[in-house]
Amino acid sequence: TDTQQLLRGRRCILLLSWEERYTDGSKWRFLEHKGPVFAPPYEPLPDKVKFYYDGKAMKLSAPAEEVATFFAKMLEHEYTTKDIFRKNFFKDWRKEMTSEEKSKITDLNKCNFSEMSEYFKAQSEARKQMSKEEKLKIKEENEKTLQEYGFCIMDNHKERIGNFRIEPPGLFRGRGDHPKMGMLKRRIRPEDIIINCSKDSKHPKPPPGSKWKEVRHDNKVTWLVSWTENIQGSIKYIMLNPSSRIKGEKDWQKYETARRLKKCVDRIRSQYRDDWKSKEMRIRQRAVALYFIDKLALRAGNEKEEGETADTVGCCSLRVEHIKLYPKIDEQEYVVEFDFLGKDSIRYYNKIPVEKRVFKNLQLFLENKQPEDDLFDRLNTSILNKHLQELMDGLTAKVFRTYNASITLQQQLKELTCPDDSIPAKILSYNRANRAVAILCNHQRAPPKTFEKSMQTLQTKIDEKQNQLSTARKQLKSAKADHKASHDDKSKKAVEVKRKAVQRIEEQLMKLQVQATDREENKQIALGTSKLNYLDPRISVAWCKKWDVSIEKIYNKTQREKFAWAIDMAEEDYEF
DNA sequence: CCCTTAACTTAGCACGGATTTA
DNA sequence: TAAATCCGTGCTAAGTTAAGGG
C-alpha cells in the first residue's frame, strides 16, 4: 500500500532520530523548490454587471471594482451587516478609489452590490453545472500545478509542501468579535516574497518582469517562502506537509516530551500543591494557574494587544470577570465557575469543585479587584514557562495539554473497550475515548446545519430495520415449523437461509444504532483537532493492533500519512 | 528585565467531490 | 439520474514559545 511504500523510505531516516541528526540546530542541508503559486490576477466584471450608487449605475475603476467584488461575494453573510465590518471595509475600499470615486462614494449604505452578487452566484452555479469533461480538465490542471509546485527536495527526499499557494486578496474576517474584521487583505506580489532555499539548489524564478524581495539560505528554519501580511503585520510561511520528515520528527519529539512529563508529573503536582501555601503571592498564583492548566487543560494565555485582536484569554490572562466562586452550591463545596472566550473565541464554560486551598487562594487573588483586572496579576506565560523549564527539560504549559490528552485516551480506551464487542462497537468505544479528550480540551464545533434532519432520517432507517427484523424473525419461525413438519432437506435449507437473514439484519440494525449514538454524542464536539494534534498516534496504532481493528477505520489516508512514523513504530503493547 | 518578533503549532469552518439515497 | 448527505481537504486565523535587542 501507499503507506508501506512511504515507510520503507522513511524507516532508515527515522532510526537516525532527531536527536542525533543535527547538533548545530540546522534543519536541512539541501533545499530546492519552485516558489509559490500566486493568486490569479483580477478579472474585471463584464460591462453588463452594474454597481449602483444612490440608485445610479456607476462604472468603477478596476482597483475599486475588485475590492467591491470582495464585499459583493460576502453579501449573504451576516457579518457584512456588522458596524465594525462595514466601517473597516469602507475605509479600506476608499483607499483604492480614484479621487473622483472617492468624492462620489461617501456612504456605504447607498451602495448597491446586488447585481455583482447575483453575477457571482450565477457563476458558481455555472461551475456546478459544468460538463464532466470541463471538470476533468480543471482537475488535470490542478494536478499539474500540484506536481510542479507542490513538492520540494529536502535533503535526499522529495517532500510534499503544505500550502504552496499564496493567500488571495480579500476582506479579512477574524473569528469572534474582531476589531479588524472587514479590512482589506492586500494582494501579495513577488516583491513581497522572501524565498528560502539552499545556495547550491536551483533557485525558484519570479514571474516574468518581477523580482523577489529577497532570496536567503537559512537552514536554521524550515520554511520555504514567507511574506508579511498587512492586517496584523505578522509573517506568513509556506512550510512542508505534515507527512514530511521534518514535521514528523517534530511531532514525535512532542509526544516524547509529554511522555517524559508522565514520569515526573507526580513530583510536579506535589510541588505545586506545596506552593499553594507559599508566603509569596507570585508563587501561589503560579501554582494555582499551573493547577488549572494541569487539571482543566487550559492554554497558557499570552497577553494580547488591545484593539488588535478579539478579546480572548487563556489561563495566565484570565480576568476577575471570568470566574465565579461558590463556597457551596448544589451539594458541592468550593466550586469555581469559569466562563470566558478562549482561542478562536470559543466559549469555555465549566463549573468544577476545587481543593479548599485553591479556593481560598482564589478568594485572596480577587480581593480589591475590579472585574476587568487580571486574576493572576503577578504571573504571565513567560514566568510560568521559565518555572516549568526548571522542573523538567523542555517542559512548557502546552505539554500538559498534550500529556493529559494522550493519557486520557489511553486510560479511556482501556476502560471502554470490551474484548467481545463487534468491530463497530469497538470503534464506538474508540470514538468515545476520543470524545473524552475533545471535551477535556474544549474542542467544540457548531452543530451541523442539518443535524436534526439527519438524525431523523437515521432514526427512520432504524425503525425500518426493526420492522424488517421482526418480519425476518417471523419467517424464520415459520420455516422452522415447516421443517419440523416435513423434515426434508429443502425445508432445512430454508431454515438456514432465514437464520442467516435474521443474523444479517441484526448486524445491520446494530450498526445503525451505534451510528446514531455516535452521531448524537458528537453533536457539538469536534474530534479532529485532538486526533491530529494532541493524541500520541502510537496509542491508537497499538489499540488497533491489539483488537484487530484495521487502521483505516481510525485514520483516513491523510492521517495515515501524517502518522506514518507511528504506524511503523508502535506495537500492540505500546504504552504512552 | 521587558518588549518585540520570528517560527512554528493548533484551530474551526467553508467548500466541493465522493458516496448514498430517492 | 438527480438530489441529499457525508466527509476530507484546503484555508488561514489564532495561538505558544524562544530568542534577540535595547
Kindly summarize this structure in a few lines.
Residues 479-495 have a biased composition (Basic and acidic residues). Its EC number is 5.6.2.1. The chain has four domains: 24-40 and 135-241, DNA Topoisomerase I, domain 2, CATH 2.170.11; 51-133, Yeast DNA topoisomerase - domain 1 (Arc Repressor Mutant, subunit A, Orthogonal Bundle); 247-393, Topoisomerase I, Chain A, domain 3; 405-569, Orthogonal Bundle (Topoisomerase I, Chain A, domain 4), CATH 1.10.132.10.
How would you describe what is shown here?
- The N terminus is likely disordered.
- The strands form 5 sheets. Strands 10-9-11-12 form a 4-stranded mixed sheet, with no helix packed on it. Strands 1-5-6 form a 3-stranded antiparallel sheet. A 3-stranded antiparallel sheet has the order 3-2-4.
- It is α+β, with helices and mostly antiparallel strands.
- It binds a DNA duplex (22 and 22 nucleotides) through strand 12, helix 8, helix 11, helix 14 and helix 16.
- It is found in: Nucleus.
- Its EC number is 5.6.2.1.
Report how far the terminal alpha carbons are from each other.
27 Å
Poorly predicted runs are 1-20
- Tally of separate helices: 19
Structural class: alpha+beta
Q: What is the annotated CATH architecture of the largest domain?
A: Orthogonal Bundle
CATH topology of the largest domain: Topoisomerase I, Chain A, domain 4
* Number of domains as seen in the coordinates: 4
How much of the polypeptide forms β-strand, as a percent range? 5-15%
Average pLDDT works out at 90
Report the biggest beta sheet as strand number plus sense, adding barrel if it closes.
4 strands, mixed
In spatial order, strands of the major sheet run: 10-9-11-12
Fraction of helical residues: 40-55%
Quick one: how many beta strands?
Answer: 15
As a whole number of angstroms, the C-alpha radius of gyration is 30 Å
Inertia-based shape: globular
**CATH top level class name of the largest domain:** Mainly Alpha
Catalytic activity: ATP-independent breakage of single-stranded DNA, followed by passage and rejoining
GO molecular function: DNA binding; DNA topoisomerase type I (single strand cut, ATP-independent) activity
Protein name: DNA topoisomerase I
Subcellular location: Nucleus
